[in-house]
Amino acid sequence: MNMDAALVLFSGGQDSATCLAWALKHYSHVETLGFDYGQRHAIELDCRAKLRGGMAALNADWKARLGQDHTLALAALGEVSQTALTRETEIAMGEEGLPNTFVPGRNLIFLTFAAALAYRRGIKHIVTGVCETDFSGYPDCRDDTIKALQVALNLGMERRFVLHTPLMWIDKATTWALAEELGGTGLVDLISEESHSCYLGTRDKRHDWGYGCGQCPACDLRAKGFARYLQTRQR
Question: Which end of the chain is more exposed for a tag (fewer CB within 10 A), N or C?
Answer without folding.
Answer: C
